[in-house]
Design a protein that fits this description.
The complex is a heterodimer. Chain A is built from 13 helices and five strands. By secondary structure, chain A is mainly alpha-helical. The radius of gyration of chain A is 23 Å and the shape is elongated. Chain A starts with 8 loop residues before the first helix and ends in a 7-residue tail after the last helix. Chain B is 18% helix and 0% strand. Chain B has a domain of 52 residues. Chain B is extended and about 45 Å long. Chain B has one helix and no strands. Classes of the chains: A mainly alpha, B mainly alpha. Chains A and B meet through helix 7, helix 11 and helix 13 of A and helix 1 of B.
Chain lengths: 221, 87
């Protein structure tokens, strides 16, 4: 059996590895689902088909590079190719949005979970969650229960001063977490091209509050 | 990093500024505005936070664009850079 990665769609679906993988998966969780087994198998086939279509024609070098990618990175790349194949501008824009989130997450120094924040601030995870609910911490919902806390909002084991006031402005305006993070980490012309987080660290509360009030509003600087 | 020279504070308006007639321009066609969900499309803000707002906060100003793209960029232009979506 060749170790080379097949990149043509037919070659992929005929490959013994893929066949055995599909057979294995079909015999596994599908059977446990009882009556829903057929639907699950159909769903799996659809997933495999969509992934194969997207992976078809992927340059060999790139396929190699994706071997080490995380699952989400791999799916994102396939989603981008899929949107391009479908010539679907809205889907492509959504994929760009997801890529933007990844970039934003990196710029934020990563997202911490509740336990990590609790250790950092010297409080209980329940206390961290309470502070998040009271808009005293910026948290980003990931899935239905998980919340990620951008690392950049902390400085020397404390929350950056006056951040809480900014978060309250956003909570009242119902600005979503990712947009709040983009505001806090983005260069802002109202702040001499500093980021709001940098300005807050330097104690410039008033101009940051003004910038927060106008965020997402049609206006002029 | 060398800092670029700043032009300094903007000079004040001319002495007869208050007596000068305000140039009014009539525009036709559609106007576009991006607004938060809790606001009405027709919204005259008085916060004083924007460039053409009344500093005394007596009259309101509606900001709008002649194109959809203009409205978008005037509202979301700055945050796009941090998403890596500016180009």
């Amino acid at each position: 059996m060749s170790n080379r990665i097949p990149t043509r769609r037919k070659a992929i679906s005929r490959s013994p590895i893929v066949r055995s993988l599909v057979a294995e998966t079909a015999g596994g969780p599908a059977l446990e689902l009882g009556g829903q087994g057929d639907a699950f198998l159909a769903f799996l086939r659809r997933v495999a088909d969509v992934a194969l279509q997207a992976a078809s024609g992927l340059p060999r070098k790139e396929a190699r590079g994706l071997e080490k990618a995380s699952s989400s990175e791999l799916l994102l790349r396939l989603a981008e190719r899929s949107a391009r194949n479908e010539d679907n501008p809205l889907a492509r824009a959504r994929v760009r949005g997801l890529e933007g989130r990844q970039r934003l997450e990196q710029t934020a120094g990563g997202l911490l979970d509740g336990r990590e924040v609790a250790r950092l601030l010297g409080m209980t995870p329940a206390g961290v969650h309470k502070r998040y609910q009271a808009h005293q911490l910026l948290g980003i919902r990931r899935g239905s229960r998980r919340i990620g806390y951008p690392s950049a909002q902390f400085h020397r084991g404390r929350v950056i001063p006056h951040l809480e006031e900014v978060l309250k402005v956003f909570a009242a305006a119902r600005v979503d977490g990712w947009a709040q993070l983009a505001f806090l980490l983005g260069k802002n012309s109202r702040l001499g091209d500093r980021t709001p987080l940098a300005a807050l660290r330097q104690g410039d509360r008033a101009p940051v509050m003004e910038a927060a009030r106008t965020f997402g509003e049609h206006g002029a600087v | 990093m060398p800092s670029s020279p700043r032009p300094g504070p903007h000079p004040g308006p001319p002495a007869d500024f208050a007596a000068r007639p305000l140039p009014l321009v009539t525009v036709g066609g559609k106007l576009y505005r991006v607004h938060r969900r809790q606001h009405n499309p027709l919204f005259f803000g008085k916060t004083g936070d924007n460039r053409f707002d009344d500093a005394l906060q007596k009259y309101g100003v509606l900001y709008a664009s002649m194109t959809e793209e203009g409205a978008f960029i005037e509202t979301f232009g700055e945050p796009l850079e941090v998403w890596g979506l500016e180009s």
